[in-house]
Design goal:
Length: 156
Amino acid sequence: MNNHHDILIKELIKLLEGGGAHATLEDALDGIPADKLGVKPHGLPYSIWQLTEHIRIAQWDMLEFSKDGNHQSPKWPDDYWPKEAEPAEGAWDKTVAAIKADRKAFIELLKSDDIYQPIPHGDGQSILREALQIGDHNSYHTSEIILLRRLLGIWK
């Protein structure tokens, strides 16, 4: 790395992939018993499944917005949160795989585009802003997943 742009891209990738001083999203999602995915402990309004699916939907929306001027975002907030507390058969694995695939696609976008320029179909957003928003959003909800796991007695 020999310039500031390369250093910034490297740091953004670290932000999106998580870790460092904190648990990654993969750490937070690893080894959750299937019977705990839909539990809403202590009257909380969401389950681990709902948080994870919300991460997938929001990250997918930011990725698609960043690359497609014809993308229509889901209706906020209703379409960003699953209604059911528990995943349907096979949905959990699909959601976790989609989060990883969309993150990888966004990282490729980070590497290929001028991250500072406004997105042509946006109203001032840039790839840099979207990267920071994805990183912030995912880390916020990752910590909530870990908190739910602690309340359920299934965290390290």
